[in-house]
Each structure stands twice: as C-alpha cells, then as structure tokens.
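Researcher: Let's try something more involved. This one mixes different molecule types, so please make sure each is placed in the same coordinate frame as the others.
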Amino acid sequence: MDSSGWPVPSSSQSSSHYARHGLSRRAFIGGAAAAAAGTSLGSGLLWPAAASAGSFSVPPPRPSPATTTVDGVDFHFVDPFHAGVDPSSITDFKGFAGVADVQGTGTGRNPDGSVETLLFDTDMRFMQGTYVGLDGKVHQATFGFV
Amino acid sequence: MFWTVPLQSGREDDGHGGVRVDLDDGKARMRAKNLRVRDFFNIPNALFRFQSPASVRATVSFDIRWLGPATGRSAVTSPPGSSGRLLMSPATMRWSAQNAQGFSFKSNPSGTTSVFGQLGRVRNGIFAH
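Model: All components are placed in one shared frame. Result:
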C-alpha cells in the first residue's frame, strides 16, 4: 500500500528517529540519496497501486502538477506531512482530502512458511469529491493514494 | 497517476471500501477490502522498476480511522494552486496484504502510532478559487 505501507524486519528498527523514518516511503522520497547509497530496505514490501488510465473504473483524474524529484525524475505528488499542505495527488479537484502516517508492527508470512515480525510506516491518503477527468468532464468519485 | 486508484465512493459500509468524513468531529474512515494492486517489493523499485519482474499481483485490505479530536485547524498554504482548510486528527490503521508469490502480511491489532494525520476540504486546479 499507497501502500498501504512498507513492512520491514523489526531487527532493522533503530532508536534513531531518522533511521526509522528512513525506511518509510515519505522519508525515502525526501532522502533518496541516502537510500540509494545503501540504506537497508530490508525484505519489506511496498504496495503501490499501479494506476494507468486503462486501469481506472471511473474516468481517470488529472495528476497533480506538483512534483517531487527523485534521482532527476519528477513524480506527481507532494510531501503531505506538514500542516496546511493539500495532500491531493490529483488536480482540478474539490472535496475532502486526508492523509495518515501511521506506524506499527505486523506479521509477515513468507512463501516458504517462515514467519517474521515486520514494521510498517504508511503514507495513506484519500480524495473524495468533484474532479475534472482527462476526458474534460466533471465527475464525482473517491480516490485513494495507496 | 502516481499510486492513486479509485475507491468506491460513499460506500464505506458495504464491506468493499470507501471513505466517510465527519469534519465537525475531526473524524474520517477509509477502508478497502481486497483492493487489487501491484507489489513492487520496495520503494526504489516501485519508482524506477529495475527488478525483474518489476512487480507481481497483490491485494490489500485496510481500515484507517482518523479519530479526532480535531486540532490545529489551518488554511491550505501549499502547493501553489491549492486552497482550503485542514485540521489535524490522529489516525489508526489495520491492514493486510498478500501477493502472487505467496507472501502475506497482517498488521498487529494491538496498536499503532499516529505520526501525522490531517483532514479537510481542499480545492485545486481549476477549482482553486
């Protein structure tokens, strides 16, 4: 999960606030250089929705023009973890929006049957309301940044 | 679109998911059940897709609650082109997922830590003003 999260082995937990957040999607985006330089990403999972126009069950919205650059590539989202920041990943939108960064633990079960305790740290968002789609028409829907 | 998928609008109670918002109380709930996604294994690969296979089929279920109380009400100040009002509200989350390779994950129900939670009404693009 936009995703919903990103479980990592609990053994990678550190008392360092930065280290713990260094494994989150949010911190990775903000600190891509550190991550690319070798920060352990563990055996964690990421569950980003692979959204393309063809995969939408409703008329696709327009991506936010606001971008975050990682290794020279622009991605259409913003760091939403500040008061007053519109967390929407779509534009030409009006309605409710929300964002949650939640941390916790859970149990991962591997294909070989082994089980391990994992940490997760999420960046989950929603947008519910009216938007102008790529088709130029006005629609209503709910989207998740998962 | 970047990590953005449609959820069923206003049907949070039907077991498949959706979003329900109560800004007066600073509360909201976002749910999905067996939402089909792709598992890219890690964030670098999700962004640049250098692994092979780059991703596998997966499903995820989640239940996120913004519990209130509403605090820190503020105007939207960024990004440029956005306006609206937001409030801070702590969140909890339960979730599970499984991918086509046989890996599964289930969050611990004993508790989570809300690092950041924010809700509100926003307008952007052609609706900004």
